[in-house]
Structures are given as structure tokens and as C-alpha cells.
Amino acid sequence: MKIRVLIVDDEPVARQRVRRFLKGETDVEVIGECGDGESAIREITQQRPDLVFLDVQMPELDGFQVVSAIGAAQMPGVIFVTAHDEFALQAFEAQAIGYLLKPVGEARFRAALQRARTLLAGHAGTDWPRQLAGLLARLPAKPPAPPFAIRTDGRIVLVPPAEIDWIEAEGDYVRIHAGTETHLLRARLHELEARLGPERFFRIHRSTLVNLEAVKEVRPVHEGESVVVLRDGRRLAASRTGGRQLQERLSALG
Length: 254
Known about the structure:
Blueprint: E1 3-8, H1 12-22, E2 28-34, H2 37-47, E3 51-55, H3 63-70, E4 77-82, H4 86-94, E5 99-101, H5 106-120, H6 128-138, E6 148-152, E7 155-159, E8 166-170, E9 173-178, E10 181-186, H7 189-196, E11 201-205, E12 208-211, E13 215-220, E14 226-230, E15 235-238, H8 240-253
Parallel strand pairs: 1-2, 1-3, 3-4, 4-5
Antiparallel strand pairs: 6-7, 8-9, 8-12, 9-10, 11-12, 13-14, 14-15
Helix pairs in contact: 2-3
């Protein structure tokens, strides 16, 4: 049975290098590539690869945020790929997690892949989810996203992300719902999704982003579709994929 591999790196040359190293490995199947953290989260959730070569330093959502968004318990095997970062290397080594330094050398690559084979086969007695959870715990907490400064009637209103319940796309704008207040902001939904981070906010539909702390339940309706019920009683339509992924995410949190 082949090892299904996903390659995640924002540098096309780096992705090509990993793919080239994997070309002669008869027990490996590359199922896809991602150039950013957002698409990596989507592909990992949908395709469920066995192993991910995951770049740490990516804009908007980095490799650690990808793991955090998926959840250590739901994450497949990982080989981190990183530029020299002393703190990250110490964290990897403390948790015995495989990593590769850029530029990636072939000998080190083969060794990391062989170790991953052993771990995936269950021959090393290694608890991969526990190691990933330990890695995330060692990382310094990221500062919270700053409040949104929204111009309204000649004044500026500051809206902290923690007070936002959900956000909906309206063309070139987004409408931010925070309690009983709504605010219109000129921005794209994917921009806010990257700014707010996957740890707290989740896209349940191509036009809807929801604060996980505002969610009360996910309720199925028909033919795989569902509605997300917020704590204030508001019901939001979720796409089939969005509803299913949200249920998986909430299950991982529990």
C-alpha cells in the first residue's frame, strides 16, 4: 500500500525539489501540492494524506498554524521543512519530530522519509499526535489579532476579534456581526480569514466565516447540508464540506 503524500510550501522551487526526491520512491504517491496554509488545511481535511512535507515559514498561515487548525489528534504524519530557526529546531528535537533544513539535501531527505515509513508502519511505538501536541505547547503564543478600525458616520469604531460572532462576504466588502452591532468593512473574506487565523475562526461557506466560540451546535438538515446555530440563536447555512469539516474540528477540540 502506497504512502499518500501532500507537499506544502509557498516556494514552487522547494515543492519541485521534494517532488524530485520522491520520484524514485515506488511506495510513495504524491496526491497534491499546496502553496499556502489555507489550501493545506483544506486538502489535509479532504484528502487525508498519510504524510505531509510541511513548510514552517509561510505567509499568512504558517506550518504550525496549519497543525493547530487541523488539531494534533487529526493531523497525519508530518516532516517539517524549515529555514534555520534555532527555536524551532530545539522544539522539533525535544519532541523527536522529523524536520528538514532548507536547502534540503538528498541524504537527509532519504533518512527523514525512511524514519517516516517506520513510524507510519507502527514499528517505532511512537505517539505522533502526542509529539505534535507537545510541539505546539512549546511554541510561544502568538499575539492576538489587533482590533478592526472601522469608519462609521465620520467616526472610527474599534471592534476586537473576540467580540465578532460571524462575518459574511458582500462583494468587495465584508459585514462584521458583533453582538447586536454590524459593521461594513472594505475587504475580502479570505483576507480577514488569514488575519484572524484558523485557531478561532472557521469558514463554513465560501461567503461565511464564523467564530468557533460563538457556535452552539451544528445541526444536519438534508442531503448532507447543515446549519450552524450560534449562541444567540442565529442560524447560518453551511456548505456540505464546510459543515462536515466544522463537525470534525469541533470533535477534535473535545
